[in-house]
Amino acid sequence: MTDADSGTDADTGTDAGRDTGARPAAGAGRLAPGPAFLRLEITPRREGLFDGAWWPYSHHIGVEVPRLISGLAGYWGPVTRVGVDSEAWGALPTRLMVEGRVVRIDGYPVADDTALVTRDDRELFSLLVVPPEAAPEAAIAAMARALSPDNTAAAGAILREAGIRRG
Question: Measured between alpha carbons, how far is 14 from 77 in angstroms, rounded to an integer?
């Protein structure tokens, strides 16, 4: 079976329609033109609720997760797992091959507008996920709010405050 979004082979016959095979992801290593898609605050104390904010260009997990991992590679080292809201992304593979490494994909039906990124199977980082359809000004405002050291607002509240609605 071919995944229409990425043009890659997918085995969707198991695990409730989720792709269970590791494979090279479409667009791996390519960054789309446009505004910055990732903002990070790397501090030893890890203040605030979020370690960063991610503004993907689309809802295509096989393209966007490799872009995210490429963006994080120089800062966080090897990423081993990414957890996302399955309601925002649709059908998810259980793993992707990104830059020669298998990255596990976890889907949670919680609609919480976050991504959880694990590096080296030890450290977990929380990212606000700004929907791709967000206006640039609103996305930038939401990302800045998420990275504020004194932020105590949950992702949904941050997005609503910035005027961003899920598409």
Answer: 31
